[in-house]
Structures are given as structure tokens and as C-alpha cells.
Amino acid sequence: MLSAVVFLPAAGALLVALAGRSAVAARLIALAAVLAELGLTAALFIAFDRGAEGYQFVERAEWVPALGMQYLLGVDGVSAPLVLLNGILGVAAVLVSWRIETRTREYFVWLLLLQTAVMGVFLSLDLVLFFIFWELELAPMYFLISIWGTGRREYSAMKFLIYTFLGSAFMFAAILALYLSFPGAERTFDMTVLAEHDLTALILPASLVFSGFLIAFAVKLPIFPLHTWLPDAHTDAPTAVSVMLAGVLLKMGGYGLIRINAGLFPDELRAAAPFLAALAVINVLYGAFIVLRQSDLKRLVAYSSVSHMGFVVLGLASLGATGASLTGVGLSGAAMQLFTHGVITGLLFVVVGLIYERAHTRHIPDLGGLMRRMPLIGAAFVLAGLASLGLPSTGGFVAELLVFLGTFDVYPWATGLAAFGVVLVAGYILWTAQRTLFGPQRPRWDAIEDAGAVDAAAMGVLLVPIFAVGLYPRLLTDVFEMGLAPIAARF
Amino acid sequence: MGLTGRDLYLVSPELALAALALAVVLLDLVVRRRGAVSALAVVGLAAPLALSAALWGEAHAAEGGALSAFNGALVVDKFALYFKLLIVGALALVLLASRGALSGYRRETEFIGLVMLSSTGLMLLGAAADLLTLYVALELASLPVVALAAFAVGRERSVEAGMKYLVLSAIASAMLLMGFAYLYGASGTVRVLSPDGSAPTIAQMLAGGASADIPFGGYALMIGVLLTIAGFGFKLSVVPFQMWTPDVYEGAPTPVGAFLSVASKAAGFAVLLRVLYAALGAEAMSADWTLLLAILAVVTMSVGNLVAIAQSNVKRLLGYSAIAQAGYVLIGVAAFAARSQDGGGASLGAGSVLFYLAGYAAMNLAAFFVVIVVTERTGDERIEGLAGLGRRSPWLAGVLAFALLSLTGIPPTAGFMGKLFLFQAAINADLTWLAVAGAVNSVVSAYYYVNIIKTMYLREHDAEGDGGAARIPVSAAAGAALALTGAATLALGVWPGPLFDAARAAAEGLL
Hints:
Largest sheet of chain B: 2 strands, antiparallel
Oligomer: heterodimer
Order of helices and strands of chain A: HHEEHHHHHHHHHHHHHHHHH
Shape of chain B: globular
């Protein structure tokens, strides 16, 4: 089951590659592949047993026995929603790519491979396998940004590659140190076993190993000051790649922090908690202030991502703070934020991409009065903005509320500042929506068209989960909490 | 003890290869069709391959895992056989891929003969059990390369490459001989290995005589060791003995670069490991060794990678890349030296070196073969000359891109698995800083490797006229070589287990 989830998009990529030169065929095969993948992930999410702790659907096979490497997949409450998220965003990404005309076949091959790589990261329980999928995403992202991007795409693609690769260099050393810390027979890359080991006496100081992982995940999430690749990559990437980047690739960083930094190193996390909380606040506020200075629509959404990811870090930090009365609530909020930010920001990028495709500009002062010409896109923009603000009945509300609840009694100042930042960002996004959509109608945009059926479908795919989670949060919170309980229990 | 049939059987892979070399050169005088001769050369390599494989079985069955030949001058164990298989395999692939590139030369068959003779020397290097045999094998391996580097006699740079190789190789040999003289002076023997115990080895003679207060156990020993490393460093293109590498790679015919970067380097590391451990490792001097090797590794990686960034000629770039890659392998050697007293750690270090060399052979040959095929057609050795290759020849570009990702160390490739094992060995030997230095160097290398990929896929070819923008034809032989190396790069990245077990078994033969 899980192998199918991981490799179905790759199989789709293979079919696209073999399907001949027709762009139509490439699109249809890619769409079929992501729809099948969404079906599979939804089935997995439904079949997932909400009453049982631990990993389910585990697949285990020997891979390189001499070195303790296994092919080990498994899903638990933390990864199940993220797998579903990846399934949803895959469909949206293919739909918004419908009008890609240059090198269509190659494009969909890379896009599908990207989805496989992300799936692999969420489902691997063996550290080497995890690392391999983590790195596998580099080549598709590099090509997608540098070939189909806009602006300084080659620079941005290379910057993305070098940042991520440098981060993973530290993770690589940390993984090996973790493995080699145990005598012969006990050596393992198996995260489930490592979680039960005593990881205080390693061959390196545990704080160094912890930092190795932290650096890699901080680059990806991103955490200030390792974030500078993100606005460039987002701005110059094609729409679908921005959607995937904000939607799931950043989440790989958050997932890693929860699964490895919190799951394996509770003591180190506790020691680093104040430091992380400070970084989180800087992230939120720094992102927010930069957002206020942006006149480029896409860069604005990109920096709002930086700001929102600060919440994930804040939720994580609250877990490690001593004296938290609501242990684990902040962490649940962080995990929820991963999911809701994925769909909300995904939607924002879709909307921005659609506007850019039609208006050929992302310069906010140039836009205005678009609502009358594009009511569908406009409505989606407003809804995404509201969800980003944390309007009750949307997913964003639930996630942010949980983070605030979990952190307020341990870090009141940090929580207050972060809340201020989030209001700032969301307010600004809404104001931007208002400036671009409403106001006097400009003759320049008289001929502009609204979303077609395919675009509407792309937006619909993302709107459904935003409201589903907002109206019935238990859909996700139950699952997340079950996955997070064993992690929180160690604090 | 005289020469017996048994001795001949034990060196039969080398004998078969040498005979094949002579046969090729002689046949050329009688047979008019050169194609037939060079085809025979490739097919004939099945003989040394099969004989090496058969001997692997014998070594496995033998007591102590090793057999001696020629009164102990040569040793046949899994370690030596692993390198024999690797060298003959690389040789076969190089010959396959360079059919087209060589057919332009009047003395094509002599080229094949010379490469085979050099390979014979390389195979003997891994099997040499005393310093004198080792030196003779080294010269047998080096001298043909001088002629090979200068093979394009009409091109000034090729002749210059040959000259450079000759002079620097002579200097390196001189240093090596001097080093050997010191080792002999300090120990009283030239015997490196003695599986049958017929004569004491350097390590046994030194045991007890070494002083713990002086680095490497004594001043004579220290000078001997340093000179020996300097001599080998030349073969391995270790900084500061790397100067010749880019010039020779650029000037010599491209197949020579491919052969040197893979076969010659592999044999160089074989000897280094052998001499380090067997002759000197038993002494309690592993700390001195480790530090020296680790520093060499860092300097070599960094210089190779940083200078490679500035290159615009693709062959020269591959030359610097070869230097950097030697640096990565040295990480494994340093880890081996650090753990030389502990069997499991030592075999992990040496095994990772052996695995990396095989993976490196696959990926580097794949990269070189694409360059051979492309430059043979376009005559354009600039990186810019590869522009638009992704569109013109998607398969060639795909193989090159994959090989470059592998050289960078991105999964799922042989290069990634190789680095995984090397860094693992380093961390296991408490050399975490070295592993981190290696990983950071991989990031630096990503810049210039990915730059080539970028040129292939994002740039359009600017040259007008003949051949510039056309699809590049690939002969069946070169196609087969490309497919084999590309597939091996992928296979070792996905399923490294069997080869790693073999490498580990071979490494245990060393101990």
C-alpha cells in the first residue's frame, strides 16, 4: 500500500516519458496519475486506524544488511495528514500547469517525480531512505525552476539547490553519527527503534547531532536567517512549483523537526526551546515586516510563508518549555499549521499565478478593479486571505488557536508578538486583495478573463480542505494528536 | 623453488592481458581490417576477466585467503583480484567507447596494445608483495601512458602532455625509490606481504624497533614514509602533486584521460592501502598516518573543487574533478589508517574505498564517454559546446547529467552510496570533521557539476553550420559502453549491497 503511494507518481512520470511527443497525452496521463494518487492517499487516510498508536501499514525489507539499511515505510498520525496534503496539492499542481506549452512532457515528468520524492520523505522510517528521498527532490526542483520559471530563474534554482544541499550535508553527518553511536549489532537507521534508544551518550555530543538535523530542517522550513533562498525560489518558480514548494516542500522541514528533533531528542529540544522560541518570533515578525514592503504579489505570499512557518517553530518550542500546562497542544497546533498552511498558501499561489498569467504583471500598484472581470479568482483570493487571517470556520483558525493555547502560558511575550505578526500579515494580504480586486475599474484590464473550468477545479480542490478542516477540525486533530501523543509524552 | 605451472596460473590474468596486447599489435601487421582487430581486443578481455573470477574462487578457498606466486614476489588474494576485475572491466569499457575516437589515428591498434600493457602493470601493482616488484609494476604501468598521452602527435598540446607526464612521472618514481630505500634501510627487507610466512615483512622487522617518541617510529622511517606517499600522490593526483593532471587530461586524447582517471587511480589506491597497512600499519603510528592523510584529503578535495569552478574546458574540468574525487577517497584511507588496529573498523574504511573506486569508475567513465562521443563529433571541448545537448541528443545528455549528479553525490546514484560509506567510515574512526569537510565539499562541487547540466538543458547552441546543432550519432559500441556505465551508476545507487559485501570481503584480504 505505502510503496504504491510513494511510487505511483513515479510510475506516472515513466508513462508520461514513454507516451510520445503529444502534449495533450502528457497532461492527461499526469492528471490521471495525480488523481489516482489522491484516491490512494484518501483511501489511506480513511483506512488509517484512529484508535491505534504507532505506525501502521508498515513495509519492511532488508536492503543493505551489512550496513543496517532497510527499506522501511510506515504511516502514523503525524504523517497521514501530510500524505493526504501531498495528494491534494499534486492534483492542484497538475491542474494549474494545464497551459504549460514548452517541453510539456519533461515538465510533467519532473513534477510527478517531485511528488514521489515528497511522499517518500513523509513515509520513510529508515533514516537513510529518508535522506535519499530528501535529496531526490533536488533535481526535479532545479529543473522545474530553471527551465519553466521566470525572472532570474537560473540564479534562484541554483541558490535553492546549494542551500538545501548544504543543509543536508549536516543532516548526513548527523545520521551517520547516530548510527555509529551504538555497538555493532544494535546499530540501526530505524527511526522507530532509535526513538526507544537512549540517545544521550553518542559518539558526538547529542546537541551537535541535534543541530545537524536542525540546520537541514531550518533551511527547508525555513527559519531565519537560513530563509533567503525561499523568496527567490518562490518568485521565479512556475505556479505549480510554488504551490508544491509552499504546500509540501516546506512541510518536509516541519515534519523533520517534529519527527526527528522532537521525536528523538527531547532533552536537546528542551534545552534549545527558548532559543527556538526567539527564532520563531523573529521569523514571524521579520516575515511580516518584509511583507509590508512588497509590491510584488508573489514575493508577498512568499514572505508570508516565512512568517507563518514561525508558528510551527513556536509550537515546537512550547513543547520543550518546562511548566507547560497544556503539553502537546502547541505541537498539535504546529502540525495543524503544516497542513492548513499547505492548502491556504497553495491556494494563494494558485490565485497569484492565475492573475499573473492573465495580467502579465505581479506589480500590485498596476492591478486594480479585477473583481468584476474575474469573480471566481477574486472570490478565491478573498477566501484564502481570510483563511490566512485565521477566520473561524477555516483551517487557519484551528491551527493558530492551538499554537496560541499551547504557548501562551509559557511564552506570553513571544505569543503576543507572534500574534501581532500574524495579524499584520493577514491584514496586509486582505488589503492587497482589496487593492487588486476592488477599487476603480481600469480600462487596461477590460479584456481580462476569469478562471476557466480547469483553473476553477484547481482552486476548488484546495478550498474544500480549507473549510472541511475549519468546520470539522477533528477530522485532522484526532489523527495528529494520536501521532503526536508518544512524542509529547516524553516531555 | 623454480617456476611452476602453478605460478603461471596464478598470474594468468596478467599473462593473458599481456599476450592479448602483443597479439593485437602483431595481428595488425597481417589483418587489413582494423575494426576486426579492435573488436577482437575487446572480446579477448573476457579471458583475463574469467581467469580473475576463477582465481577469486581459489583465493576464497585458500587458507588465509591468499596465495603466493613466484617465491612470494606476488600475492593473489581477494584484494588484488578485486582490483584486477575493476581494471580489466574499466579497460574493456574504455576500449568500447573509444572505437570511434581512435579510428582517426593511424596507429589505432598500437594504442590498444599500449593501454593493455599499462593495465597489465596496474594489475600487478595490486598483487605486488615486495617493494621491488611493486616498483617494476609501477613503471610498466606508467611508461605506456607517456606514449598514450602524446598519441596525437600532430597536436602540440598532446605532445606537451606526454612530455609533462614523462618528466613528472620520473620525478615521482625517483622519490618513490628513495622512499623505498629508506624503508629498506630502516627494516632490512623489501617484503611487504608474506602470506606463507616464508620471509619476514617490513612490519615484522620493524616491530619493537620503532620509537614511540619520534613521528612514524623513527626519522629514517618518517622520511621513507613521506617520500613514498609523495610518490604515490603523483599517481593519485593528490595535492600538491596534482599539477600534471589537468594538462594531461586536456592535452591527451580523451580516452587516455578516461583510462587514467579510473584504472590508474584505482591501482594507485590499491598500493597505497597495501603498503600503508601491510608494511607499516602494524606499528603504533596510525595517529601520524591519519592526520597526514586527513589533511591531504581536505586539501585535495578543496583545491580540486575550487579550481574546477573556474574551468571552461570540459576535459580540464574533468581533470580537476578527478583531483577532488581522489580527495574523497582519501577520507576512506584516513579512516582506514585510524582504525588499522581494529579489524571491523579497518575493513569498513578499506571497503568504503574499494566500493567508491568501483562506483567512481562507473560514473566517471559514463561522464567521460559522453564527452568522448560529443567532442569526437563537434571538436568543441568548451563547456559551452555542450549547449543544447538536452535537445539535440537527449540520451547522451541524460547519461551525462546522471553521471554528474552521481559525482556530486545526489541519490539514487553510485556516488551517493559511495560517499555514504566513506563518511560512515570516517565518523566511525572519530573523524567526523573530515566527513563534514567532505560533505561541504560536495556542495561546492554541485556548483560546477550542475553548471554543465544547466548548459546542456538551458542554453541553445550558438554555432552555425556543420554539426553544431545536429543530433550526435552514437556507434553501437559506444552506446553499449554508455548504457553499461549508466546502468551501473544507477544500480550501485539503488542496490549497493552485493558490491559492498564483495568490497568488504576484498578489504578483509588486506588485513
